Amino acid sequence: MAKIDPFTGKEFSQWNSIVVPTAKVAALCGGRANIIPGMIMFSLFGYAGQHAYNYLDARQNSNTNPLAHQQSTSPPNSETSKSTASRTVDQPRWKRILNSKYSPMKVLSDEEYAKVLREKALKVDVEIALVDEEMAKLEAKAEAEKHVGGREGKEP
User: Fold this and answer.
1) What global pTM score does this model have?
2) Alpha helices in the chain (DSSP H)
3) pLDDT beyond 60 at 74
């Protein structure tokens, strides 16, 4: 059964999705002489990129869902599929991306966020205590200088 492209209303095929755009890019980059080599190279780049993405996505899904490997290797069984389905929690794609080890950001639960805030507040309290100690040392030094300076002025 052929898929229909929602934008053009025409039948969707792999030829239309991979080769035609690469031919257009090749034609823009170097003219007619580079269309065939460009189609080949950009098709290979697209193929390699898609398979790299699929590999990383499958590895990430197997890390987040330890039952995924078991599901793919075991024959379908009504008991295991029911128990697996109840234990498997599907996350939206944006959460999976943010929780990926490749992402610099992470989705925090309320408890994790509260813990981070407590740690930051503790750091601020420690810095305030250090500043207070430094102020106390400076005040004691200034008081000692006033006291020593007052004695020296009375002795002569």
Assistant:
1) 0.36
2) 14, 20-30, 35-64, 67-73, 78-87, 93-98, 110-154
3) no
